[in-house]
Amino acid sequence: MTNNQQRTRSMIRGGLSLLVAAAFYEAVARSGLFPAVLLPTIPTIVSTLIDMLADGTMFEHAFFTLYRVLFGFVLAVIVGLPLGILMARFPRVEHFFLPLISALMPIPSFALIPLFMLWFGIGNVTTVLIVFYAATFPMAFNTWSGVRSVNPIWLRAAGAMGADENSLFWKVIIPGASPFIITGMRQAFLRAWIGVVGAEMIAASDWGLGWVIFDAKEFLNADVMLAALVVIGFIGFVFERLVFGSLERATVQRWGMVRVAKG
Amino acid sequence: MQPIAIRDVSLNYDTPGGKVQGVTNVSIDIDASEFVCIVGPSGCGKSTLLNIIAGFLAPATGQISIGGKPVTGHGMDRGVVFQDFAQLFPWRTALGNVSFGLEMKGVANPERDRIAREQLRLVKLEKFTDSFPHHLSGGMQQRVAIARALAYNPSVLLMDEPFAALDAMTRDDMQRLLADVWKETRKTVIYVTHNVAEAVYLADRVVVMSAHPGTVKTVMKIDLPRPRDPLSVEFLDCQKELMGHLGHNTNGAAH
Prior knowledge:
Distance between the termini of chain B: 46 Å
Shape of chain A: globular
Radius of gyration of chain B: 18 Å
Strand content of chain B: 15-25%
Number of domains of chain B: 2
CATH topology of the largest domain in chain A: MetI-like fold
CATH superfamily of the largest domain in chain B: P-loop containing nucleotide triphosphate hydrolases
CATH architecture of the largest domain in chain A: Orthogonal Bundle
Shape of chain B: globular
Strand content of chain A: under 5%
Order of helices and strands of chain A: HHHHHHHHHHH
CATH class of the largest domain in chain A: Mainly Alpha
Largest sheet of chain A: none
Largest sheet of chain B: 6 strands, mixed
Low-confidence stretches of chain A: none
CATH superfamily of the largest domain in chain A: MetI-like
Oligomer: heterodimer
Structural class of chain B: alpha/beta
CATH topology of the largest domain in chain B: Rossmann fold
Number of domains of chain A: 2
Number of strands of chain B: 10
Number of helices of chain A: 11
Mean pLDDT of chain B: 88
């Protein structure tokens, strides 16, 4: 079976699971067990979504959310990636930061929102910092594991061929750690995406997908909430499968550094 | 090509780099363009000796010089081929792997590409320049590793059981190929193996080491004309003699 056929089949399977779940939801929504305002049918959600897309508000909300998440995520990569590398290369850096990371990583970013609001007020600064907090630790942690797992024989071979510290770093350690670095980015983005929506609910005003959901509860607009959830899920899916998926296919999968599940 | 002098080299304790099979008072002189095999039972320190020559380990006492220049750490006068297939960089194509040493040496691109292709042709992999290592068989990967070690033109090629993990048929092909490559490039080769037939097929001289302490037991010259026929009587006689040095019972009788 070719790669394309496999991909088509897995897409059909994925679509089927979604369809079954949607049908189940629709059945419950139409059963009359719950008030229609609280559990709107799929056609209602879709028409709300189309209205919000048509007047551009949904795009604007999504734009603000994306801006915050990408800002924080890029910041997290800029800090987390070198930090992970330094930790793996220098025991002193590791001894200082590892306990810190171990202690801070389990704290949910949500738990910091009220504190950040006191410090930085309502708006972009707080949301971006929450994203940054959520994403930095998985980035640093995975990079650290990746650099430590670089096969020593690559370093030996490169050294025998005259590689200096600089080439060793860019041409052996970074590509050698790339499976972990990409995993780190994936986890960092996932946590960033969860963090941004939560932060927007209470620490953003007027714009953002999280704010839309929180604001809609005031007016009992379950359809707006669900429409925003669809957009949140869609964007998350696009990043996970298309952005990071393509990155992985173009690098570590092509190099045979990670195994690909068949079927 | 340059002669190698190994003088009273000993290393008998574990280094930060890992556990080490000790070597004691090893002295060997190797001529330029000579093919020397080091054989011995496991634990005799033959790989340790090779790692010292490569500069990955520093000897506790004694010294090694290549072309009169003392060895301190690794250098581009030596190319190294390991046993492990994983020695290639998986993120580089065959051509990219072979180019690595040239990049480090600062050779610019049209020239670098030309030399790397030439090396791959030498190991008969010119059709696989753009393949990534994981698409190549074990034998092909080891050939890329040989091309990679030769590409930046070291005078000495150090090989640590490079074909030990290959199946018997591929190993025979690889030995023929290596003999051809050696004939063409005239590198000085130090080749560690535990395979007696391989040593007799490849070497000008075989250094036999013994364990506890890891030291040179004897040196055997192989005077057979090349290319060698592994089925000839002379070849089998050499093999018997070498096995005798290694302490194997060669007449098949009970002890």
